[in-house]
Amino acid sequence: MFKNILTVGSWTMLSRLLGLVRDQLLAAFLGAGSLQDAYQVAFRLPNMFRRLFGEGAFNAAFVPLFTTTLTKKSSQEAQRFANEAFSVLITILVIITLLAEIFMPQIVMVIAPGFTVDKARYQEAIILSRITFPYMVMICAAALVAGVLNSLHRFGIAAAAYVSFNVVGIAALLWLTPFMPNAAWAAAWGVTISGVIQLGILLFAAWRAGIRIKFCIPKLTENIRLLFKKMAPGIVGSGITQINLTVDTIIATLLPTGSVSVMYFADRINQLPLGVLGAAAGTTLLPILTKALHKDDPNAAFEAQNKAIDYSLLLTLPAAFGLFSIAIPIISTLFGHGEFTIKDVYASAQSLQMYTIGLPAFVLIKVLSPGFFARGDTSTPVKIGMFTILLNFVLNLLFMKPLAHMGPPLASSLAAITNVILLAVILRKRNALALPAPLIKRIVLMTGASMIMCLTLIGVMHLFFLEISEKNIFYRLYCLILLTSLGGLLYGILLHVFRVIDLGQFFIRLKKKILKK
After folding, report:
1. Per residue in 127-185, pLDDT tens?
2. Any transmembrane segments, and where (predicted)?
């Protein structure tokens, strides 16, 4: 298992690094103007359906059913089930794609109403959306094939295939741009081509593994009905998140040109700690909680949940305060090149600061939700999520004029904080959450250490690095490394002084592990 985790983790890390390079090229080639806005809206459409029908929701339902069929019945039955699921999924997605291609002007009008004022941006968004939408079919089919490979314990190739999205995206921007009307077209074609390549790689890998997935006449068999039934909760859960993101996009299109773009690049930075810490906490906590509750051991469940809260906040709080304090150096160093101007850097940094306000809350949602799921309650988090969609929409309307590009990120952050409060209150009323005094004290001390670190970094930056964004890339990189190193060192020392952690014991354990290896 450890080997598989390392394998998948390594490919995931490589994919994120290449994704950062791809985003840097997008910033350099397109800046934060109307073309970038049109491309981001065009990519949001297939990405939304990918998250609804592919990956999480589909894999969570398909992999257990396929694995059970493979182990309890036969490889032939598993092959048949995979073909049935593949055929039904492809059929549904192709129909959706054809309808979307026909009614794309109306769809863009709904998700980007602000674009209708600028006819050129509106038309560009329609064309780019028509180019990117078929990616949804390819990537959802690829998610199915990846699920088959994971069931066969072929984790490496399944994880490696997704790296091709960023590899193709980078290649398209570098080499396809001269042959296209603009870089946005090249990036859009890169998205769709990457879907074809990912699906091709995975189908070949499945064929090598002895599973020949092919299209057959789609039928709603008993297995397919069961698959859709198990997918429903995941689609509802994913749908809430996607609706929130779509609301943010709709509001952003009504703001000045470039708002969609600067928010996108800010969110990409915010997603780094959120994607790693939130996903890790939620994924590892659920089975532990479920096992403890099945054994009728509530103390073990409380201990597991409290440890997850403790460990998550230990890393998330400094990440949030750190990103807030050095948002300008981060955005400037990573994206402040080419067409991405100093004005864009400051706007994107402001959006990032608003996102970081809700970063701990976004992670805690992942930690508290398993407290419901492990007890068989999947409806309460969904109901709370639906309420926060309404809250997010209302806050967006209130903030859009006075705060512009900072409004949607702040609305999302406040909605996430409300979500966490409601989850915690309901768990507490059900005697499913109990925070002991030592943990509350640790959280207060961690917050205090993070705040001191934040204020120190802001002070150092203003005293010594006033015009970071206007300097050359090497100076900006030097400042960013210096500031992040200072922040990490200061936070660690403060935790030691506050007796939250013992640095001496930490280094002793680290030395023992290194010597053991």
Report:
1. 999 999 999 899 888 888 887 887 776 666 766 777 888 899 999 999 999 999 999 99
2. 88-112, 132-152, 159-177, 183-207, 245-266, 272-290, 311-332, 352-372, 384-404, 410-427, 439-461, 473-501
Q: DSSP strand E in 320-474: where?
A: none
The DSSP H or E segment spanning 156 is: helix 155-161
146-170 as b/e, with b when 16 or more CB fall inside 10 Å?
A: bbbbbbbebbbbbbbbbbbbbbbbb
* Calpha distance 486→480 (Å, rounded): 10
- Structural tokens at position 6: 């390392």
How confident is the model over 299-342, as pLDDT tens digits?
777 888 888 888 888 888 999 999 999 999 999 888 888 888 88
Region of 477 on the Ramachandran plot (φ > 0 left; ψ -120 to 50 alpha; else beta): alpha
Cα separation of 10 and 32, whole Å?
31
Q: Residue 24 is which amino acid?
A: Q
CA distance 465 to 454: 15
Reported as type and span, the H/E element at residue 90 is helix 75-102
Q: Cα separation of 235 and 382, whole Å?
A: 11
Contact 21, 170 (CB under 8 A): yes
Query: Amino acid identity, residue 42?
Result: A
Please report which residue ranges of 274-358 form alpha helices under DSSP H: 279-294, 298-325, 327-335, 342-357
CA gap 270, 262 in Å, rounded: 13
Nearest Cα neighbor of 262 from 319, 363, 332, 323 is 332
Which of 340, 342, 343, 346 minimizes the C-alpha distance to 328?
346
Q: What CA–CA distance (Å, rounded) separates 378 from 374? A: 9
CA 19 from centre of chain = 12
Give the three-state DSSP class for 339. coil
State how far the alpha carbon of 187 is from the alpha carbons of 165, 169, 173, 506, in Å: 11, 6, 6, 46
Q: How far apart are CA 310 and CA 439, in angstroms?
A: 7
At position 512, the amino acid (one-letter code) is K
